[in-house]
Amino acid sequence: MVNKPSKSKIIPIKNKKNGVTYLYNDQYYWDSEKQQTRHKRVCIGKIDSKTGRQIFNQKFLALKARKNPIQGEFPVEITRIGQVILLERIAKTLKLPKILKSTFKDNLDRKILALAFFCTCENSPLNHAGKWLQSHGLVSNPYKMTEIQDILQTITKESILMFFEKWEKILEGNKEKYVYDITSIASYTRHNHFLYYGNNRDKEALEQINLAVTSSKYSGIPLRYIFLRGNLMNLDETHTTLYHFPQQNKDDCSFVLNRIFYSPESIGYLIKNEYSFMIGIPSRSKWTGPFIKNFRNVLEKQESLTDFKEKTIQYHTTRSITDNSTIHLFFDSQWRREQELNLEFLLENCKEELVSNHPIEEHRQLYETYFEVRKNPGGSRKIMRKPHSLQLFSQSQAGFWVVQTNCEEDPEKILKTYQIRNEIERKFDNLKNEEDCIYLQVHDPDIFESRLFIQFIALILSSSLQNSLEKDGSLSFLQSYEQVLKEMESFIRISVSRPPEDVYTTPTETQLLLSESFGFVLPRNKP
User: What is the pTM of this model?
Assistant: First the structure.
């Protein structure tokens, strides 16, 4: 039996072999079996032979940040500064702090940028920002939810418009622009509604936030947004949207449109009035069938390219037979295989539901399409897959998608454009979450517009970070800006109060590579 250890105590012990005096966290206890006092010691640092100062190792200093530090030991503060150092560098390169400071007074510019840093790094409701800002060294005390709400209430529509004017002047060389039609609750990270077998979120009866977002065609940096009364495939809204953007005309803009609002009439209107556009064609459009059939027959002979997720995409380009536009066809074999496995898993669940006689209404169409139920004379039932069920998927358009455009011949640029569109939509996806509606009153129109503006600043930061990442070949092993931020998260400052000193974790090879690529300096420990 071993009794409870004593309170810890720091003791120095000199190593006779190398002459170094090490510091140990010492605890003694009574070992009743051996009838003697024993010690438990952990090395926590050493004494500098020249200055006599105590130098504690990083593991010990990190331990001091726990909520219940051992009594009698000095306080330590840990700050995750890696992500902030990187984002401050990105913001400075874009001149964002300068524009925000000239637009928003009374330190509001710094608060907006700090909240935008949170939105760039975290996919969480804004009311969670308080502790994050403190742990990353942006505020001394965590913001309360009422303080975040006050910040949102202080941002005015006039100030937002003033920011847009100044921001577009900074980027005035980016004359050619994409105008994205964004619905914040919809998801466009997939290409085809059929593949989800009726489960896509776009079909849910939820409130939608329709926006038009402009970005530079070549840099991908967002420039401005406006609210839409409907969507850009509403003919009146398409015609009037450009007037919301100062000094814009249809020759400078290409519309990147929401496929769920596709109609031949709308496409005809755009072509007739010489609007530049690209739009994903929904699978329900029967006219794409012959194009996909021909594409399928020659897949092995088609060229391929690599998308942003390092997946091989086969493609084919052809001209529309009815108007002056181009049809881009794409095929992702990995994606098709994933959807086939998903369908098989779903059908296995459907079979179990039928066997147990607990059908689900949402699966009724699947039951009727894929299963045959036979009743035996004794009253039992036999559930069988229909003979043609295996052919249904092989004949489907899963893995194929189609884009129609009159402004872009390069299929690789089409994929890149929709990658940007997906990222914009994903960034705006969490704006009306339930938590922020309750705690920050985001459902209030004025507060919501301020919340949207902060998300827009975060979008500028993430877009710039992604662009820089893609241009540097030495960082090709990092596929997204999220991975970059994840790599920087582990760089930490440890502040010791007695004696006052800042200690930094040793940078990883990736962190050093990022600092060289983006041009920022990681602080180092004193020798």
Answer: 0.73
